[in-house]
Amino acid sequence: MKFGIFSNNVLKIIACITMLLDHMGFILFPQYPIFRIIGRIAFPIFAFLLAEGCYYTKNKLRHFVVIAGFAVVMQTVLFVATKMTDFNIFIPFAISIALCYLVDYIERFIKEKRILISIGLIILLISSLILFYFIDAYTTYFFMNYGIYAVYLPFVLYIIRKYVKHVNIFVSIFIICITMVLMNYFTTYLYQFYGMISCVFILLYNGKKGKFNLKYLFYIFYPLHMVILYAIAMFMGG
Length: 238
Description:
The chain is mainly α and 238 residues long. It has 10 helices and no strands. It has helices spanning 8-27, 33-39, 42-56, 60-82, 90-111, 115-138, 149-163, 168-186, 198-203, 217-235. The longest helix has 24 residues, at 115-138.
């Protein structure tokens, strides 16, 4: 970690740029797969940064409310502007955050020796993980960007960050690689193997925030670039 050269801000910018290229390939240039290939870098970095945010955030309730609020607002904006009905990435991310903080409550109540509450929350956590899997896999009630992986990956990375000491970055990279392999074989998303390239950037993470406050960069950039890209597509007659 001490040899890392990329701050949290730099990783966030890299993820935003690769996400932009991905969506450019999807909306404007579907004939050029290189855009989608580069775009595979974005999701693992965002999932990693989400886990980092959950680990360092002090006001956890506010953090969840902010993400959930953005999810609702962005879903509304994207539907009005682009007629997009797929759930935006903030919805599974908000679910993942809730599960992460549920783990924190379980840990707290276990330390306080409140056994019945702890057991109840553990059952709730396991049930939620199973429920979201079956909803995503076997129903058509909703479709999330990156499916259940957008819920599971940040959650698992958070568990690693919280409980695996010293080598957590290497275990996180291993989990990301496994996730990309699973996504490549068991989903319809294309080029997921290339998501492992993100591990190079994550390995160079220095654990620092960075000079500037870019906390809400992704929250603003995500809906803004989507609306602009769809507007360009409409102007071009697409």
